[in-house]
Amino acid sequence: MAYCRQEGKDRIIFVTKEDHETPSNAELVADDPNDPYEEHGLILPNGDINWNCPCLGGMASGPCGEQFKAAFSCFHYSTEDVKGSDCVDQFRAMQECMQKYPDLYPQEEEDRLEETAVSEAATSKEEEGSS
C-alpha cells in the first residue's frame, strides 16, 4: 500500500511492489507560472542565488553541496576589491571535500569551477569599470 508525505515543496510517494503491478493513476501538476525559481538564470531578480539553476550542474547538492554553497555565496556577495579574495577558506573547504569524492567530482570539474569563478570576477570588474 502506497503512502505520501509532504516535505516542504516536495511530495514523496512510497510504493510497494504490488503498487507497481497496476497502471498508475497519478495526476501530473502543471508548472506554477509564478514560481520564482523557474525561467531564471543563476541570479534571481532580487539578487539571490538560484540554487535550482541547471547551470550549476547539481553542484549545490550532493556530499559537498553545503561547502559549494558557502564558497559560491561568499564569492557572489563579496565586496572586496579583488572579488572573492575573502573566500579562500570556503573554497579550500569545498576543494578538500571534493577530493574525498573523486568519482563524483573529477579534476576537470574543479578546473571548470575555477574558470567560472575567474570569469565571473573578470565580468564583475568590467561592469564596475563601465559604471
Automatic annotation (TrEMBL):
The alphabetized list of GO BP terms reads: mitochondrial respiratory chain complex assembly; protein import into mitochondrial intermembrane space
Q: Which Pfam families match?
A: CHCH
Q: Where is the CHCH domain?
A: 64-100
Q: Which UniProt keywords apply?
A: Disulfide bond, Mitochondrion, Oxidoreductase, Protein transport, Redox-active center, Translocation, Transport
Could you tell me which SUPFAM superfamilies the record lists for this protein?
Answer: Cysteine alpha-hairpin motif (SSF47072)
Keyword Zinc present in the record's keywords: the answer is no
Ranges where the record places region Disordered: 103-131
Subcellular localization: Mitochondrion intermembrane space
A GO molecular function annotation here is: protein-disulfide reductase activity
- InterPro entries named among the record's database cross-references: CHCH (IPR010625), CHCHD4 (IPR039289), Cys_alpha_HP_mot_SF (IPR009069)
Give a yes or no for keyword Disulfide bond in this entry: yes
Q: Which residues cross the membrane?
A: none
Q: What GO CC annotations are associated with the protein?
A: mitochondrial intermembrane space
**PANTHER family, A to Z:** COILED-COIL-HELIX-COILED-COIL-HELIX DOMAIN CONTAINING 4
The name on file for this protein is Mitochondrial intermembrane space import and assembly protein 40
